[in-house]
Amino acid sequence: MSAYAARVPPAALAALAGASVWVSLGHSAVLDAGTMARVVSLPPLSWLAALVVIGIGLAAITRLPVSRAWPLALSLLVWLPYLPGRVPAAFLMWQGPLEGLVWIAIAAGLLFAGPRPPLRITRACADPRRAPWIAAAVAASAYASGAWSLADLLPGGDEPHYLVIAQSVLLDGDLRIENNHERGDYRAYTDQTLKPDFIQRGKDGEIYPMHAPGISALVLPAFAVAGYPGAVAAVMAMTAAASAVAWQVAWLLTASASGAWVGWAAVFLTTPYFFHGFTIYPDGAGGLFTIAGVWLLVRLETKQVVTMRHLVIGGAALSVLPWLHARFALIAAALGAAIALRLLPGGNGVRRAGAFLVLPALVAASWFLYFWIIWGTPNPSAPQGRDLMMTAGQIWIGAAGLLFDQQFGLAAHAPVYAMAFAGFVLLARDHRRLAVELLLAIVPYVIATSSFAAWWGGVSAPARYLAALMPVAALPVALWWRERSSDAWRAFALLILGLSVVMVIPKLIVDGGLLAYNDRAGYDLFLDWASRAVDLPLAFPSVHRQGLLAAWVAAAVWMAAGAGMAAVAWLLTRRQAGRGVTWTASAAVAAAALMIASTVVWAGHGAPGARPGPSQWTFLRSWSPSAAQVAFQLQPGRRLSPEDLARRLEVTNLARTSPDSADVTVLRASMLPAGDYDLVALGEGRLHGEVVVRVGRTDQAVERWRLDGRQAGFTGLTLKLPVPVHSVTIRADDEARATAGELRLRVRSLAVPPIAPGHALRAIRYGQTSAFFMDDSSYMEAGGFWTRGEEATTLVLDTDASNAYAEMVLLVRSGAVPTTIDVTTGTWHRRVGFAANQLQAVSLPAHDGTARLVTIRTGPWFRPSDLDPQSRDTRRLGVFVTVP
After folding, report:
1. What is the pLDDT of residues 479-525, one digit of tens each?
2. Which DSSP symbol is given to 856?
3. Which of 422, 470, 564, 591 is deepest in the core (most CB within 10 A)?
């Protein structure tokens, strides 16, 4: 450690960390991207003093040495969004999820600077006989948790089509799938309507699947026993086995247990392979058979004993690959040829090579025969007909997309693969022949898949077409780790490995897993979530949105940033600074690289980088006004009351893409807090036309306003939200869009606390009252709403101010069966009984405000379809309520 670093007292770093926790509990929002005007709200100053004291106390109790305390200095990053003056937009990214990443880096740094792990754990994981089993168990557990987290989204994409193939074999004993679709066999595992996925009919005129049947056959036994969950379990068993083999192969090559674990984690715990570890695609399972072939190749390279049993296993594994997908034949052929050429020299080389090749030769013949029998040609492209969707001109586009694209690229979702590319250089130095053999398997395959028009692989996790090759990356990563053993290189490696692994977690838990899957809009959902204050998606390459040249330029900027990080790591290897300082410097350089690269790419696009709309929306979602808080406006600086701060906030359209000509939506925002919002029009002059405000997914309006004669700016129209709402959508007709320009909702006041917990799912205007429904236990209609039988529905009734204090009379009509309702509002409760088809008035007592929380619990119910065979209405209806 340097003399200067040693002189910094741990108490000072602990005090800084405590103060940084105080800042992390605050909120900030960008008001203007050009001037960088911002507002911030921080906890009471008493909290600051308490957190500083706690930080110093913890440092004293744990006797934290300065050599370990230095990672606490990284907490300075969370102060950047709160600096006064006109700061770079990139400073604003260190809030929200990326702010959490700072604290994760601090915790990891404290561990990195600390003592080594217990010896018994190291021995258990270093045993090459036991470690592969541990690797498989951990991977299987991780994939099971992933499948459970995404259960509401899966199966998706082409997964049901692979399952239909298994069903056809299981139920009919053939591959003719048209009848399976007609019967709706697929409804056992999906609610979507599924049409046969084919291009070219068979020579007998029947519909056969365009997808290879290999993965369907592999999951068939488990699917027959346990249905879709069984098929998922079968895929998880194969991908977990792939992780075990990859660990063993990495260890055989490097004799480094720690290197094998790093290589294993770099592949099997990061996004590109992780999300293929439990989905019914051939790519994740293909990784098992690819790494099995590499396993045999590495045994030959490292002069291990290779028996006939080993040869048969390796040959069988490669034989499976073409049946999983025709493109995998390139991998199988390259690895098979490499292994055969290694076996030929020697006295019994021909016999050994023959033993290895006999099964692949027989299976290859049956593979070509499969196409001949069904389509009348041995050409594996026969199922595609003439539509191969492969062109040489597509290769550069597909390669950029598969490697760098922010939505579908390998490196974008797992930066740790940079270690694999660097490690390959070391592999070529130490094992030249093996490196050449692997390149002959990798490069032609990547070129071929890059030539696909749909290189992204449809609705699936990123880099799907590379998943079968990903386990191979464990080898160069392990080799790089073994060779780069200094603290600086290890800190560099662990930083990008940790980032790659941590990126998986929000993709599993945020919004039910929606961050894991992208469409082709050109904006990665994960990057959009990671920072609302700055435009991270614009800072990363996007083949779909930016085009090929701009994507390659952005990728070059990020590669330069990575090279800069590596250069700093190399410089740190020349200084004995201690692990704590080394980690801190490495993480600080990584943060600087992220900010600099983002700024450079934004400048290339001519964009400011900051996003005022999403920033203010995020502030509104998380901020709760309190007189005890400290609120400021930055640039120019002044102290604000919570009320003044709120009135500076606006809700703008949060939709990423511009509406097309058929879309009349001008503002869409979700999760708005309760409060009053003024409608602001940014046009000029007089306004005309109509705007409609909707809450939630409904065709019914909560407000319908005519703009005729109103002036641009403040329109004098106010949206009242007595409770937080799930979403707000404003739609405008042609006149309104032409004259009003952009429409915004400016906060007038926020309701603290709101009248009801949770968010209203839908709302509708009934005469003088707006009804906000807090659950799905009712059916909203234009003239009133039906309650759901034997359930309670909760709603908020917001009456116009002129009738705020009067009693409210609800007209309640029962349906075809006698029933009861229990009505509760505040402390008032009443039970009402109904005969069949009876109408009664239920008077709610006078109220001391405009909004009241009402709960209606309904008794017996009926289905219209049970009474009228012609009716398709299967709802469980209780009573119909008409609101004045």
Report:
1. 999 999 888 999 999 999 999 999 999 999 998 898 999 888 889 99
2. E
3. 470
Laid out side by side, the sheet with 778-781 consists of 778-781, 784-788, 877-882, 808-814, 839-844
pLDDT at 183 over 80: yes
Half-sphere exposure of 173 (CA within 13 A, CB side): 0
Tell how far CA 192 is from the center of its chain: 22
The residue count of the chain comes to 884
Q: What is the mean pLDDT of residues 362-368?
A: 94
Specify the 3-state DSSP secondary structure of 422.
Answer: helix
- The DSSP bridge pattern shows strands 638-640 and 703-706 to be unpaired
CA angle 386, 388, 390 (to 5 degrees): 140
pLDDT in tens, 753-791: 778 888 999 999 998 899 999 999 999 998 899 999 999
Q: What is the 3-state secondary structure (H, E, C) of 335-361?
A: HHHHHHHHHCCCCCHHHHHHHHHHHHH
3-class SS string, 102-138: HHHHHHHHHHHCCCCCCHHHHHHHHCCCCHHHHHHHH
- Encoding tokens for residue 577? 């600074």
Closest by Cα among 386, 396, 493 to 446: 396
pTM for this structure? 0.90
Token digits for 712? 């641009």
Cα 316 from Cα 503, distance rounded (Å): 35
What band does 660 get if pLDDT is binned at 50, 70 and 90? very low
Average pLDDT over residues 61-74: 89
DSSP notation for 714-737? EEEEEEEESS-EEEEEEEE-HHHH
E strands of 733-791, at which residues?
A: 743-750, 762-766, 769-773, 778-781, 784-788
Cis peptide before 415 (omega within 30 of 0): no
Cα atoms found within 13 Å of the Cα of residue 607, Cβ hemisphere only: 18
Give the contacts of 781 (CB within 8 A, at least 6 positions apart): none
Residue 313 structure tokens: 């296993």
pLDDT at 849 over 80: no
Q: From CA 623, how far away is CA 646, in angstroms rounded? A: 10
Residue 360 CA to residue 363 CA, distance in Å, equals 5
pLDDT digits (tens, 9 = 90+) for 200-218: 899 999 999 999 999 999 9
758: left (phi over 0), alpha (psi -120 to 50) or beta: left
Q: Closest Cα partner for 811 from 845, 783, 790? A: 783
Percent of the chain's residues with pLDDT above 70: 97
Rounded Cα–Cα distance for residues 770 and 220 (Å):
54
Angle between helices 487-502 and 257-268 (to 10 degrees): 30
How many Å apart are CA 47 and CA 761, to the nearest integer? 36
Residue 753 preceded by cis peptide, ω within 30: yes
> What contacts 459, CB < 8 A, 6 or more positions away?
156, 157, 158, 517
How far is Cα 499 from Cα 102, in angstroms, rounded to an integer? 11
Residue 659 has pLDDT above 50, yes or no: no
Q: Which helix (H) or strand (E) holds 672?
A: strand 665-672
Q: What is the DSSP letter of 824?
A: E
pLDDT value of position 8: 59
Task: Measure the N-to-C terminal CA separation of the chain; round to a whole number of Å.
Answer: 76
What kind and span of H or E run contains 878?
strand 877-882
Evaluate whether 655 touches 666 at the Cβ level (below 8 Å).
Answer: no
